[in-house]
Specification:
This protein is an alpha/beta fold and 307 residues long. The chain folds into two domains: 132 residues, ATPase, nucleotide binding domain (Nucleotidyltransferase, domain 5); 166 residues, 2-Layer Sandwich (Nucleotidyltransferase, domain 5). The chain has a five-stranded mixed sheet. A hairpin with a 4-residue loop joins strand 1 and strand 2. Helix 4 crosses helix 13 and helix 9 packs across helix 10. The protein is globular, with a radius of gyration of 21 Å. It starts with a strand and ends with a helix.
């Protein structure tokens, strides 16, 4: 009997599942972070191999029984970076005298897309700390919108909400703009109460800018003008993502699944965004993901094994 392994690599936790060729999960386990751009390829390779060894030991099988393994993680969408991790993993496995058939690194968004629609056509919009949209047409072509990172992209993300919220606070401190509730919420939650404290937090203490996003959403719900302007601007940006993907896919109806706490949780931001979708589009249908990303990785592993 042959097996497949799918791995969803996250910044704080990595999920791993081993299945049969009918995609029935046989064992699931978790490990530490596997963002190799942050952790390094050698450390992530050790984490991934450890998860695979757990699967093999639990099912009492041989490594050769695993037909293919796919890891989806941040940075995996750039082939040159993905190959660096693949090489590090292959080297580690060889050093430990472990022979594996196929090991492939893909982006976390790619496996999420495959999982959300069980390999069928569709699109996903991810809006968490960052933002990106992926789509797949009937011919199997893959399209991408956004994902340019916090410096020149990530519109509609938690980072952008937080960044703009902190900018509104800075303007209030200076008198360049009126009072905003975000300032009060920032003081209450993070004890940031002056320009000096704000600058120190951002530029010396590595403050998590995306952590301000919930404060912006809270302030907007309480009718704070500056916060509501931010919500309007960033939901408009996500609408542009959808509009662009619609043109790329060129289908009569576009199915989209949401991923990321900003737009999957019930909050003022997600409500406003969904409201705008209904107002602008009559051919965009929001669907719940059919499977988690790790099953999407298994689907891709099955495709590789069949080649």
């Amino acid at each position: 009997m042959k097996y497949l392994i799918g791995i969803d690599g996250g910044g704080t936790k990595t999920k791993c599942v081993i299945t049969d060729f009918h995609l029935n999960p046989l064992f699931e386990t978790t490990g530490g972070p596997s963002n190799f751009l942050m952790q390094g390829t050698d450390k992530v390779a050790e984490t991934i191999l450890g998860l695979i060894i757990k699967c093999v030991n639990n099912l009492q099988i041989q490594f050769s029984d695993i037909a293919a393994i796919v890891l989806g993680t941040t940075g995996g969408g750039r082939r040159s970076d993905a190959e660096d991790l693949e090489k590090a993993f292959t080297h580690l496995a060889a050093h430990k005298k472990i022979a594996l058939n196929i090991f492939r690194v893909e982006s976390d968004a790619r496996i999420a897309l495959e999982g959300a629609f069980s390999g069928k056509p569709g699109s996903i919009l991810i809006a968490g700390t960052g933002s990106i949209m992926f789509g797949k047409d009937k011919e199997g072509n893959i399209y991408r919108v956004g994902g340019f990172g916090r410096f020149i992209g990530d519109e509609g993300s938690g980072f952008k909400l937080g960044q703009k919220g902190l900018s509104a606070v800075a303007k209030e401190y200076d008198g360049r703009a009126g009072k905003t509730l975000i300032t009060d919420l920032l003081r209450e939650k993070f004890n940031i109460d002056s320009p000096e404290n704000l600058i120190t937090a951002i530029y010396r203490n590595n403050f998590d800018i995306a952590s301000v996003a919930p404060l912006v959403i809270d302030a907007a719900e309480k009718k704070d003008k500056a916060a509501q302007q931010i919500i309007e601007s960033e939901t408009d940006e996500l609408i542009l993502h959808i509009d662009s993907m619609k043109k790329k896919l060129n289908e009569k109806k576009m199915f989209v699944a949401f991923i990321g706490s900003l737009i999957t949780n019930d909050n003022f931001y997600s409500f406003r965004f969904r409201e705008k979708i209904m107002q602008k589009f009559d051919d965009v249908i929001i669907k719940e993901p059919e499977n988690p990303p790790e099953i999407g990785a298994v689907l891709m592993a099955k495709q590789l094994a069949a080649q």
